[in-house]
């Protein structure tokens, strides 16, 4: 499958290396060994859900497995039986072909680029799945594995999910489906029932820093103090750490936290200044950092109140607020609404959740 050089990739963060180009894996040795052991014993499930928080290395692990299978298509081979990990040398032909997407036997399903809006579609559409189905049945280019990577399954709508389900139910021989999912519980139950689940946890701050440094410049050149703060605030997500390290992200995150700490009182002047900053396409990274900080705040408040024995009705207010915020964010993205109204609405909902 050829890479669309002219269009941004929906599964790549900014200018960081794509997961298919990332050879290192940090913090997930147990999950890697589970996959290696299943392959070595010829017990590889046909479909896997690789789940866990955003940015912890799920796609990197999926591409790492794909690279290993293409390099070693026979599980009984001596190289497989003696392997200690799924690592493949950077100069291996399979690694080079994957990095350049010069493959006839790997199929990547992700949100496509919309030429009209010059943005990615908000969902993986059924026509995208149909293209993969057609290509999937045309045969393996190397006579070995056919591997489909979905990054990420959260972006499937009901129609595209059902179309993918049919392919998973009736695949060609030697097929493997790797479904990256931030929230596996939201996937179709029928898909979940046909997949083996492999859950990845958040990275430690040490592994987060190591993963960031492995990406090379400019990430590896960030001041050590910024790396420490970003790793602590990223909660095990390399993607979030990269956001925080870019364009005064650490200072921006601290400013957002100060606004949240004043709740249920809202600093409306500060909220309006924040809303102005998040408007526009050039501020996508700041917007994503704000939305993640919002989710982090709500999660922390629910955990804190639950530990103090708060009544369920009080906890439910925060869950309701998050559902409303997520729906409003989706509408803003789909209909290209002004983000100012979304940001101000978020502060209003959070204040009401706090005040009851």
Q: What is the CATH first-level class name of the largest domain?
A: Alpha Beta
Structure summary, number of beta strands: 7
Strand order of the largest sheet: 2-5-6-1-7
The percent range for strand residues is 5-15%
CATH architecture classification name of the largest domain = 3-Layer(aba) Sandwich
CATH topology of the largest domain: Rossmann fold
Mean pLDDT: 91
Distance between the termini: 53 Å
Q: Point out poorly predicted stretches.
A: 1-5
- Specify the overall morphology: globular
SSE ordering: HEHHHEEEHEHEHEHHHHHHHH
Number of helices: 15
Main sheet attributes: strand count, strand direction, barrel closure = 5 strands, parallel
The CATH homologous superfamily of the largest domain is termed P-loop containing nucleotide triphosphate hydrolases
Radius of gyration: 21 Å
Helix content: 40-55%
SS-based class: alpha/beta
| Domain unit count | 2
């Amino acid at each position: 499958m050829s890479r669309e050089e002219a269009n941004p990739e929906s599964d790549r963060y900014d200018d960081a290396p794509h997961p298919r180009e990332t050879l290192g894996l940090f913090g997930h040795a147990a999950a890697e060994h589970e996959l290696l052991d299943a392959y070595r014993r010829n017990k590889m499930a046909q479909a896997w859900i690789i789940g866990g928080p955003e940015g912890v290395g799920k796609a990197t692990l999926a591409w790492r497995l794909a690279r290993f299978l293409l390099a070693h298509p026979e599980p009984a081979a001596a190289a497989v039986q003696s392997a200690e990990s799924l690592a493949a040398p950077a100069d291996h032909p399979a690694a080079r072909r994957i990095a350049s997407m010069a493959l006839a036997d790997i199929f990547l399903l992700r949100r496509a680029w919309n030429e009209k809006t010059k943005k990615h579609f908000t969902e993986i559409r059924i026509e995208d799945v149909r293209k993969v189905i057609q290509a999937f049945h045309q045969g393996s280019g190397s006579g070995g594995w056919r591997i489909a990577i979905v990054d990420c399954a959260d972006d499937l709508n009901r129609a595209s999910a059902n179309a993918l389900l049919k392919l998973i139910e009736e695949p060609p021989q030697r097929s493997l489906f790797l479904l990256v999912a931030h929230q596996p519980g939201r996937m179709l139950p029928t898909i979940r029932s046909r997949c083996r689940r492999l859950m990845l946890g958040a990275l430690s701050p040490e592994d987060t820093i190591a993963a960031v440094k492995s990406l090379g410049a400019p990430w590896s050149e960030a001041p050590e103090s910024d790396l420490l703060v970003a790793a602590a605030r990223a909660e095990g997500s390399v993607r979030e750490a990269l956001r925080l390290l870019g364009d005064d992200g650490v200072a921006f995150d601290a400013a957002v936290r100060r606004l949240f700490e004043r709740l249920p009182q809202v600093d409306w002047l500060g909220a309006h200044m924040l809303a102005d900053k998040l408007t526009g396409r050039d501020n996508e990274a700041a917007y994503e950092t704000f939305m993640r900080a919002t989710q982090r705040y709500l999660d922390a408040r629910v955990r804190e109140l639950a530990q103090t024995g708060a009544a369920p009705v009080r906890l439910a207010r925060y869950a309701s607020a998050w559902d409303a915020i997520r729906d409003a964010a989706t509408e803003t993205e789909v209909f290209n609404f002004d983000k100012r109204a979304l940001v101000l609405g978020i502060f209003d909902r959070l204040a009401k959740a706090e005040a009851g």
